[in-house]
Fold each of these.
Amino acid sequence: MQSNIPKVLQSRIVIIGGGFAGLRLLRKLQRHDFQLVLIDRNNYHQFQPLFYQVATAGLEPSAISFPFRKIFQSRKHVFIRMTEVVRIDPEARLLITGIGQINYDILVIATGGDTNYFGNSNLKALAYPMKSVSEALGLRNRILENYENALITTDPEEKQGLLNLVIVGGGPTGVELSGAIAEMKRFILPKDYPEIDFNNMHIYLLEASPALLNGMSGKSSEKAYQYLLKLGVKVRLNAMVRDYDGKTVFLANGSVLSTRTFIWAAGITGYAPEGVRAASFGKGNRLLVDSFNRVTGYENIYALGDIALMQQDGFSNGHPQVAQVDIQQAANLAENLVRLYDGKQMKSFIYKDLGSMATIGRNLAVVDLPFIRFQGFFAWLVWMFVHLMSIVGVKNRLMIFINWLWNYFTYDQSLRLIIRPRTK
Amino acid sequence: MQSNIPKVLQSRIVIIGGGFAGLRLLRKLQRHDFQLVLIDRNNYHQFQPLFYQVATAGLEPSAISFPFRKIFQSRKHVFIRMTEVVRIDPEARLLITGIGQINYDILVIATGGDTNYFGNSNLKALAYPMKSVSEALGLRNRILENYENALITTDPEEKQGLLNLVIVGGGPTGVELSGAIAEMKRFILPKDYPEIDFNNMHIYLLEASPALLNGMSGKSSEKAYQYLLKLGVKVRLNAMVRDYDGKTVFLANGSVLSTRTFIWAAGITGYAPEGVRAASFGKGNRLLVDSFNRVTGYENIYALGDIALMQQDGFSNGHPQVAQVDIQQAANLAENLVRLYDGKQMKSFIYKDLGSMATIGRNLAVVDLPFIRFQGFFAWLVWMFVHLMSIVGVKNRLMIFINWLWNYFTYDQSLRLIIRPRTK
């Protein structure tokens, strides 16, 4: 397959979104003669796999966030702009943003996904999502405040709702979060709140399908289920949520659960700025791309990672929305943009599945590699090593390592702080 | 002087405020047979001397904050309530709080001080205070956002206002903060924002009196002034602020300064809940106390630290509002409450001045001890050692030490993150 893009230098590359895909692309391209512009709502890269540890007060937000400006400090042709993209104007080759117009020669959309509430406005208004550091921190504050409030309420029903947590979605986020909350319940909360009887606290994990961790092997899925039961999590498979009113979760089978903390980790939907023609969107609000990650119908617009839907052999519904795909697509696109500049043909993306893993708790993890599957303590060590090595910044790596060691030996962090910046 | 308090057990001691004074009192009393209640707006103790490092992205808020519940985890007779005190009712011996009524036998007011804007409502609305971790974090976000905005504005006047900082108050907070900002300007900002010419950034430190660090020796005051000049801070002594409109600072001598970041560290005023009779208040809205820290006119209400005004020989206007006084008064009161319980006479408070110190920048500090005064690198080491040892929590101590070491060798942190919790 041959590229149809004219072999002239597309000199100004604008990337929307500094997640795994956008950041990798920028890092790969920074040594080349492009003018590079990164647009992100935040001034930092976020390490999504550890959001759940921020939410459960195991890590500080700063440990899994890294300022873009520090990464590209010495690169004078990398421009970082903290703003929202309001609209893309493909005809005029420019973006309308919160800080004005930004022109591009090549546009790369790497905006990822946002929480999918499947059109339920109650869920959107009341459920806690887990798609950013800010949301994870907001959830942490909420959980801590709930126990402060549980101390003082005299209404038994309200107290029960404050103690309980319901997590929807049996993917890695839901599994890891419910495991971490179960460990808080066991090791920390009874010490912090001796006035509360935590036998009355229930953690529910709801999954609509018949199994947890659907992207992983049956063995890992089964083990994760057993580990969660062991930690005291009430796992409900084939459980569809119908609604939530801020106090009660209504399930499709007619049963109800009482909780003030309803966490929604049950799906994502593509999050693309306005202005892209409707015909370029596929299933899940993702942008249809060819095997070079070029958005169908456009010559100079690319999409990467979670937002991109590339239909290939074995991936008729696109690739899984995981960090590995983001990073590999970004690396391939970086190479292709350089090839384009050099007048060479572009290379088709080929996904290499490096495996997947999830941690359920202390010494408990599941790992599926292409050649081997294993669970338990060694899987947990591998999980920690892989995540530590993936974090941006040597100091962040060190800080997380110390935090984990500390937590392992003391069973207790000192991060249960409800801190909100006070601005004028 | 003899105590007039009846020698019966005052069994329920309620402490408002978990700052240096309240926390020390609680720690000293926890081994005794009192029922102890701590009321604080936050669920954590804050280490005020390092707020300026949070504001300048040198430390994380979590490093200088510590959850009360973790400190008192094993103490079943210590009750912690996160709420505001609305009013004290001394007749009925109870507090009206955000979570209902709380009775006391003995009440200890350790609410400290709040920023004193001297009745200027513009300052109150627009100036940045530095009296809490939340305010320091809000200031950090503001400073970082200002440089993002300076990048994109085309109005030269607005740009100048975004680059400049004006700090009012030549006490330790103002001196340490302006020194830290000067180091950001020198080592970090030009690398983060190569598009901005930081020769145009000006840092002003305004002090109404003829000298900086008025509580310290003439030598230290003079050295601090020289260090700040060396770092490029424009120090203006005898400079009275008349007003601020959000863009321009108006000085009493008719001159003006342009800034969007106007930091007010020029004074504190006592911050006591309502309900205490007017006659018990002295200068600076502080509560008049006898030499046992008992509020005049009450038998069972005490005040500690910044909020207390104890007139003694050499301290006709009360003791300095510094951590040393808070801690020593708390220790003395703890001993006195136990003595009261044991039917013994209370002991008068005697202040022991252990000295004071301030750091201006890398290798630059001033230290006044009772027996010796010194400045420079060794003073800086002593400053760091004393502050590290004063921090609550071994892990916090370790984390701060690593941060400081890292900063010393790399000249650069990775904490310039604008993170706000997102709640529902």
Amino acid sequence: MTTAYAELTQRLADLTALEEVVGILSWDQEIVMPSGAADARGRQLSTVQVVAHERLTHPRLAELLATLRHDPTLDTTQAANVREAQRDVNKATRVPSHLVRALGETAVRGHEVWVGARKNKDFQEFAPVLTELVDLAKQRAAAIAPDRPAYDVLLDDYEPGMTMARLDPIFARLKEVLLPLIARVRAAKDVPDMTWLAQHVPAENQRQVGEKIVRSMGYDFSRGRLDTSVHPFCGGAGPTDVRITTRYNENAFLGSLTGLVHETGHALYEQGRDLSLADQPVSRPRSMGIHESQSLLWEKQVAHGRAFWQAHYPELQQSYGFLQDKPLDDFLRGVNYVNPNNFIRVAADELTYPLHVILRYEIERDLFSGQLDVRDLPTAWKERMRGYLGITPPDDAVGVLQDVHWSGGAFGYFPCYTLGALYAAQFYQAAVAEHPEIPARLAEGAVEPLLGWLRRNVHQVGSRLETDALVVAATGRMLDPEAFLSYVTAKFTRLYQL
Amino acid sequence: MTTAYAELTQRLADLTALEEVVGILSWDQEIVMPSGAADARGRQLSTVQVVAHERLTHPRLAELLATLRHDPTLDTTQAANVREAQRDVNKATRVPSHLVRALGETAVRGHEVWVGARKNKDFQEFAPVLTELVDLAKQRAAAIAPDRPAYDVLLDDYEPGMTMARLDPIFARLKEVLLPLIARVRAAKDVPDMTWLAQHVPAENQRQVGEKIVRSMGYDFSRGRLDTSVHPFCGGAGPTDVRITTRYNENAFLGSLTGLVHETGHALYEQGRDLSLADQPVSRPRSMGIHESQSLLWEKQVAHGRAFWQAHYPELQQSYGFLQDKPLDDFLRGVNYVNPNNFIRVAADELTYPLHVILRYEIERDLFSGQLDVRDLPTAWKERMRGYLGITPPDDAVGVLQDVHWSGGAFGYFPCYTLGALYAAQFYQAAVAEHPEIPARLAEGAVEPLLGWLRRNVHQVGSRLETDALVVAATGRMLDPEAFLSYVTAKFTRLYQL
């Protein structure tokens, strides 16, 4: 190893440690912090973030990266580490600090205004600050890459390499298949009894069942913990401290359980990172879309499927008496219940979810190209909602104001949810092609060889490969929507006897 | 406010935030961290500490302090803030980094070796690394103040301003009164039945009773929390996040409860700090001895006294059935039970505790003056234990190896425990002189006006005054042992009918 590379890794390790500290402070804030400490926590977090920013923009770090960028003695992992660090440094150095401050302050104000506007169901209260947030995001994009479309630069924050030019045809193809499929589900006569989904299950019972399933998925409690929180998340501090949270809705045991499986999918990705490189950028999860692929693979491909429940349904029946006489097939229809009349993205099922995302993507894209004005968002929202799902939200609170993302200035994030679903289907298809015994093993309650395949092809790879290269190496081809489309078509055709 | 002073407070606020971050990381490590995260936590902590050290030794900070040290426009609080910051800077800049590293590494090794030696009950296993630790502490003292006795410099770490010249006569006076008093207690015939102290009380019952008492003392749960841990402590991050822990020993409910009161005393001090200056050194608790005075005042003066139990004993009787027929007087003798045959400092009662401390002080003093060699410690220990308490520890594990302090290089800490007891007695005496109704109010379950007196005279003062000035302002005289001695003499003469 060269002296320069050794110095680089030391500097990057310090940055990783500081990011991990932010992870612990944030977890603490959500889960255990006394309410009176909020102001002090704000100061602690911003101090650590300022320190991290100073180190990330330190001239010596830029100098080391410049030296190493074309160093032929680096191996591929080291070169990838340099590439990842360079991307972080570019963003940190190119965005002027007055813009960082304005973004931060406007996001805080935006969130406050959004909370009020949503309460009052009035988008126009939110419109002025949203306009500011869009302008600031445009300025930021221009600072990072003045020659690229702003929205492509924003997409890059969450899904490096992704562009509108690639998303447009993928989303067009999704609409082409999903819209008629949803219409057929809507027309299906045989709507099963679903009242049992709302049966009361005490949180403690749910916790016991949930913990057992989390453990069976391979989550390592010696390198993590499970707590409850209003908004479930996967946080913590690096691969040896991966903390998940969940919420036990006592009148929606199934959603609580699959939500927990979702967070466990994120956690398995984090715990599966290359421990020998845990303090370096190259071991980091590749992107938001790939992260979401891991949560959705476990939540949807696995825990919405027959094989998984062949293993776990008997336990569930034993714990929840009201399931004792319910056949597995009926239960699976409940797990996969499609509700095209739902307005809310986070409550959406597997089939309609992509349309909630596409709607948001198209609005963001048109906002940043200048084709759409902020004040016209509610109209654009309703038109698209009618076009895609045939429904009209009664007010802004369950329409254009339902998501928190824009209030914090996060534009370009939404596509990752559906990219995650597409990656998940493509990964699962490839894993089963390589290990055809996966479903049979899941039906026995065993996560191997599925978990092993994910470890080798996704978790351990980290950011060694860029996204496309990772997907090609894992599945033999670039991302496309066909694995997802054939999976949902087959599944819902069967479940709804279309 | 001058520009220089404004810049100083900003730099000090950043340092405070970093210290608070260390507080949260440490609490997390003890209470919620998964075991597998230990190595990562070590890296996170050391990164934050290195950052803090860099900022504390930054030339600009020294420059600002030099400018402000003789600035006549500063008010007394500002001047005190400069003084406190200067002391931190002096220590950080005068100790060379190679020595800091050697101290840190040797302390880690020292702790490991001590654990093994204590297990094997063999001091000589520990002697070599203890010798290294003593040498390093001498080097450190010489770096900070080459013209002062090393042990005085070490005392200053915990109790600024304290010296051997002041401790020697105070401790001599304690021995003069306590030794004959203990002999009379030992000779007392009327030893009460104490088996009820070991009655089994489930942890959950203890928690309910404990929480109620903690609340009644004025502890604010919106700015803190109460958890359980093997070694109880008061930690957290500044006055709005004061976290206490306790241990519920199911066969020693009373010790668990008074231990909890002790930590609550520390916590009240932290919560009582001047919130408008919470991010500045001037609001910090004055010293270890003053901190211990707050825990001991509540634990001993208050929760070992009749007035407090007049208020709380009926609740306790209601919760713990076996106390129902036990008169308050018998209960109070249990609370104040003296056991001169106890070898262990942390298990010692109020009367014998100072002798455990004096023994350690004398050994440390003689070690650093060169009068005593490390290898002769067990002999010195046993001789003094025989001289003071008339007992000989059967082995090193319950003798010279019982405390963790030396294994981490903490020399000069022990005297603070007894200084705390002396300050506590002197403060309580002064508070009652000013508010004679304090005992009657305590007997009604009210902590006012005692808490108000402490807030005004100790908590809010913080480090505005140096220790002696604080004590004089609060009590009208310098620290002396007479308040403590008359208090214990009166109390134990009465309890043991001497």
